[in-house]
Design brief:
Elements (H helix, E strand, L loop, with lengths): L1 H29 L8 H18 L3 H24 L1
Helix pairs in contact: 1-2, 2-3
């Protein structure tokens, strides 16, 4: 029971942090400045945190959604904006 409680608390912190990173990444990306591409780094961190949270909560649909859509889009953005 304590282990589940710890997982739940960690998942909630990850969700909150994921929201903060997504907002920061979106603002940086929308700023359309020289550093806009780095917004994708924040978005990738946000997606990773949401993926971990979904795994901890055993939410299969969000796990699949986070792993496939978000991370793929973020990796494409990082490649196109920062690495190329």
């Amino acid at each position: 029971m304590v282990l589940f409680s710890n997982h739940l608390a960690l998942a909630q912190r990850l969700k909150f942090s994921s929201t903060a990173c997504a907002i920061a990444g979106g603002i940086i990306l929308a700023s359309n400045t020289e550093i806009s591409g780095y917004g994708f780094l924040f978005l990738a961190v946000s997606s990773g945190q949401m993926l971990l949270s979904s795994i901890l909560l055993r939410d299969q649909s969000m796990t699949l959604y986070s792993a496939s859509l978000f991370i793929c889009v973020d990796c494409l953005g990082i490649f196109r904006w920062i690495l190329s």
